[in-house]
Amino acid sequence: MNSKFHSLVITLLSDFGDVYPASMKGVILGIDPDANIVDITHSIPRHDVRAGAFILMTAAKYFPSGTVHIAVVDPGVGTKRRAIAIRAVSRNGDTHYFIGPDNGLLIPAARAAGEIEVYDISNKSLFLRNISGTFHGRDIFAPVGAHMLRGLRIEEVGGRILDFRDLDFGTGKKKCDSIYCEVIYIDSFGNIITNFSGKSLDFQPGDELQIEDIRVIFSSSYGFCEKGDPVALVGSHGFLEIAVNMGNAAKMFDKKQGDEIMIEHL
Length: 266
Fold this sequence. Notes:
The protein is an alpha+beta fold. The chain folds into two domains: 9-161, Rossmann fold, CATH 3.40.50; 173-265, Bacterial fluorinating enzyme like (Elongation Factor Tu (Ef-tu), domain 3). It has five helices and 15 strands. A hairpin with a 2-residue loop joins strand 8 and strand 9. Helix 1 (21-31) packs parallel to helix 4 and helix 2 (49-60) packs parallel to helix 3 (107-113). The longest helix is centred in the middle third of the chain and has 14 residues, at 136-149. It starts with 8 loop residues before the first strand and ends with a strand.
């Protein structure tokens, strides 16, 4: 066991709702009774790989080095799609492990955590004895994650691969006084999160913007505008966000995930 990177923290993310995660936890605790299991969420919209990838990317980086992240949003479960494990190492040596399906779900979070190495999970001795065609979260991902939590080297899960399935949210573009970006996530408040990085913005609080013929003020938080007024800001995730104070921006601007948005700086 490499104690430098070993941790007792294992996270779970899925679109399973409130029933199926319990059996995954049972498998993990059966292998490592000391495991500290943290639920990121099990409320990802069903089959929405991009939403799951965004939430995993925003949450995983706050966990300690050595954390094992199991994420399962898996429309292709039971098919020939691969199961993968990823090791991501940051410049300062912090290491995170990601386990799940090879459908792009893990990639943005892993890349945000550091340089990545991707492995095909093919060591069947790590799986449960009977593998369901519909629940690899319980029968493959949970036991592999628990064994890694106990110090199993990632090289022991299978061979390294380079042809994994990628997922990239893209990058919003700035042209003259306008920003062209894409909706990458809409949260439960109806806030619109775009793929334009807050680090690239030169807006100042109080600046006037125009979005879909609606005047919007750029601010540092939601409460600096009146109830029902739209506001643009950099969210806690680090991306440009459009919100409505005590309201729903997705409905006001009639936007959904994947839509394009043009934001004009007045």
